[in-house]
Structure formats: C-alpha cells, structure tokens
Design a protein that fits this description.
This protein has 469 residues and is of the alpha/beta class. It has 15 helices and 17 strands. Strands 1, 2, 3, 4, 7, 8, 9, 10, 11, 12 and 13 form an 11-stranded mixed beta sheet that branches. Strands 14-15-16-17 form a 4-stranded parallel beta sheet, with helices on both faces. The chain has a two-stranded antiparallel sheet with strand order 5-6. The longest helix has 19 residues. It is globular and about 65 Å long.
C-alpha cells in the first residue's frame, strides 16, 4: 500500500486580540512569536534546507489580492517565511504577486506592508502585473465557438517571471505558496489552488469568470504547482473572501490554525474541511482530482493529517452576507446569473462601499440573462449593467430610453475595474479611501507601476467625480 499523503495542521494557542475584529490590528507579540515558531516547524517537518534545489533560490507567493483587512496573507507570516529561508541557505528569496483586478500590485505591497518586509529581509519584491508575458492555453474545455458552454477565451497571458522560474526551471527553484485561509463566494474556498489565479494577467481574468471558473483554475494548476503550501489561518473568512470590515465580527473567525503540505490539492482539501466543506462544495478541487492533478489523493481518507481537525464540525457559509443598501434595486436574469462573475463580484463591492464607506444608493443594477422587458422598461434614473450577457440583452434598450449618461456598463463576466469605477461614481465614494497610505505615496506607486509597464486594470483615482464607463 502506498503511504498516505501528509498534511500538517498546527494550532496556535496564544490569544488573539480582545477588541472587535472591525479594528484590524497587527498581531500581538505573543501570537506573532508563536506564528513564526509554527512556520519554522512546518518547514522543518517538510525537510527544511533539503527542500532547496539547484539554484538555492526561493519563490514565495502570498495572497496579496488587495489591502482590505483580512483578505491578504498576514505580513507576520510572510516575514517569518522569508526569514526562515534566509537562515536556511537560500541564495535569494523572491516575494511575487499579481493582485486582483482593479489593483496595482506595487500599491498593494505598500498598503499591506510587504514592501517594508522586503526591505528589512532583503527579499526581492516582484510585481507580476509589470512583467512581460507569454501566451498559454486554457485547455480544459473547448471554445464557445464549438460548444455553447465552452470558453469565450481559450488563451491567456502568463507573466514571463512565472514561466521562466516556476515552469521552465521548476526543477531548479523552490516554490512556496502562502495563501490566506478563506472561503470564497464564487469558488467555495480560496486556498493554494486558487492562489495561482494570479498567474493569468488581469486582462484575461474577466473572461469565463462564470460557471467555467472552476475549470480554468484547474487549467492553471496543470501548468504549475507549488512545492509546499502553507495556509495561513490566524483568521479565516466566511461569507466569501473579501469581508466587509464593519461586519468582521460576523465574517471573520480567529481560527489560529495553519495547514500545510507538499501536495497543494490535498492541503486545500484539509483547509476546506476546516470550514466543513467537501469536494462537492469546491468544484475546482473536484475537477483537479478528476483530472489527476492531486497525485492520487481522492478524499481525506488518502491523507495522513498530522494534527487535530476533529473540532471543525460546523459547515460555514461561503456565499455573501445579506447586507446591501435598501435603495439599490438588483435585477437578476431568470435564465442565467452566474454567482462566479457578474453576480457576486459587484455585490461584494456594493456591500463594502455601502457598509464601510457610506456609499449612496438610489440606482439600479442589472445582471445576467433572461429579463422581463416590462421590468427593464420600468427602470428609472441611473443603472449599472454588469456582464456581457445583460449588456447584450438590455443595454441598447436602456440607453435608448435613459440616455448613455445614465447607463453604466461593466463588460465581460467580471470586469471588476469597470464595476468599481461605476460604483465609485454612483455611490459618491472616493477610490483613494481604499488606499490608507499618504496620497503622495499612493500616487507615486501608481506612477511607478505605469512607468514599469503595468497591465493592471485600475479605475481612475477620479472616477468618483467623472463617469468613465
């Protein structure tokens, strides 16, 4: 009998903050020290310095999608991981990321403090959105030209840094994935496999961010997999991956757990189990198993869990918490409205702008396909149409009646930058409130990003003042 795949679970006993989680704070000294000790022990357990390969270079991928509290890997964990490899023979450590749509990675590093960590530790910060790219194929499904449920886009641009160091030279370089332990309102969970959604450039992520998202996550996994994954669960999120700060006491759990392993699919399966979720709840993990990307692991029975997970008996919610402005009417198509794209992405932003930043209502959002013409004709005032399905079906009709100045369009399945630009203007929210650093530094980061060729899709800093979509 083949030995079972090992996944390590470590619990932290030091107390978390006693104040409300709506006030995001650095870790206290005791918890920070215990977190570092646990990360060191996990690397040691996996082989320590013997994990280094020919180049002795280490590539660490955190989850740095955004600067919203609790949605990114704790800086304390990132710094501990870098320090470990500095102390265990690494020639060079790289910290690389490609933040979510609507964000420039260089700016996110400045907001969350990854830039300061790199300066302290000597790690090399890498902003994948500023890199040149190589074309790759999404191979999991045929084109929509040949199959109505196929991919609208069958190719994507991969940063050359990833291609060179993690694919072409994977036998020479050590790749560590360090994601946050989160549920996800569109993917079930966002852990090690989902952490690699940073590898398609932002311009490619808006296509097929619908019922095909799980297949595309597995497609990326077919090209590249980490050598070791640590899921940082000092806190974990429920109700999705992007919690409303004002609702953090409902949406954030101080779990104080780390889950780690060399097999990223197996590690994610145990991470999902923390939330009471199975493969049936996480389609991209199920597809990864079916395609043979899990190295023979098909269930928890194939995993040797080193640590206790028996206390995780509750199935936590992954879909969005119901906290929306009462005067924003949301009209969903009756035939199709994919929560993986044009539904939950704009709804996430809507609830954050409303609850955290006092965003205004008094407008309508239309999404999906299969609308009642009478309901569309009853819309008055300003309207945001999200997703190509809805735009193609009702866009011209609404523009003809209401005028282009009152109709905002967010194309593709998930054009987060366009949705953000529209809502900043509709809700009268300054985009710079999402950047809690001095304005000159924020603008300098954005300028440097552009000067270095960033392909990030970032809404205008003045989109609250001027309609841009």
């Amino acid at each position: 009998m083949e030995p079972k795949t090992a996944v390590y679970v470590r619990h932290l006993s030091a107390p978390h903050q006693t104040e409300s989680l709506t006030k995001f704070q650095p870790l206290n000294a005791e918890l920070k020290a215990e977190l570092k000790t646990a990360i060191y022990e996990l690397f040691d357990r996996a082989g320590g310095a013997s994990m280094l390969k020919e180049s002795k270079e280490v590539f660490i991928k955190p989850n740095g999608i955004d600067g919203q509290p609790y949605c990114y890997t704790r800086p304390e964990a990132v710094e501990a991981a870098i320090e470990y490899w500095n102390e265990h023979g690494a020639k060079k450590v790289y910290l690389f990321e490609n933040s979510t749509q609507s964000n420039a990675t260089r700016l996110v590093y400045a907001v969350v403090g990854y830039d300061k960590i790199c300066r302290r530790t000597g790690a090399v910060p890498v902003y994948l959105d500023e890199d040149k790219t190589v074309t790759y194929e999404f191979k999991g499904k045929p084109s929509a030209k040949d199959d109505p449920d196929g991919y609208v886009s069958t190719t994507f641009e991969m940063p050359r840094f990833v291609v060179k160091n993690l694919i072409e030279n994977r036998d020479k370089n050590l790749y560590i994935s360090l994601p946050k332990l989160k549920t996800h309102s569109m993917a079930g969970v966002t852990l090690g496999v989902k952490n690699q959604w940073a590898f398609p450039c932002q311009s490619a992520r808006g296509f097929d961010h619908n019922y095909n998202l799980a297949n595309k996550l597995a497609d990326v996994l077919s090209y590249v997999r980490p050598d070791f994954t640590i899921l940082e669960g000092v806190e974990g999120t429920i109700y999705g991956h992007y919690p409303v700060t004002a609702l953090a006491d409902k949406a954030v759990l101080p779990l104080r757990v780390l889950v780690a392993g060399k097999n990223v699919v197996a590690t994610d399966m145990v991470g999902a189990r923390v939330y009471g979720l199975t493969l049936d709840d996480v389609p991209h993990l199920k597809i990864a198993v079916e395609r043979g990307y899990s190295e023979g692991v098909t269930s928890l029975d194939d995993i040797n869990v080193e640590g206790d997970i028996s206390m995780y008996t509750e199935k936590y919610p992954t879909d969005l918490y119901d906290a929306y402005p009462p005067d924003v009417k949301v009209i969903k198509g009756k035939k199709r409205c994919c929560k993986q794209g044009c539904q939950n992405n704009p709804l996430t932003l809507l609830q954050i702008l409303y609850n955290d930043h006092g965003g205004k209502g008094g407008w309508t959002m239309v999404m999906g396909m299969g609308h009642d013409p009478a309901e569309i004709d009853a819309i008055e005032g300003k309207v945001l149409i999200v997703g190509d399905c809805a735009i193609n079906e009702v866009g011209d009709r609404l523009i003809a009646r209401l005028g282009r100045k009152n109709v905002y369009l967010s194309h593709k399945c998930n054009s987060l930058a366009d949705s953000a630009a529209a809502m900043f203007h509709l809700m009268k929210v300054d985009p710079m409130v999402f950047v809690p650093i001095p304005l000159p530094k924020a603008l300098w980061c954005l300028t440097l990003s552009k000067l270095h060729g960033s392909g990030a899709l970032v809404p205008s800093p003045f989109s609250n003042k001027f309609k841009t979509v």
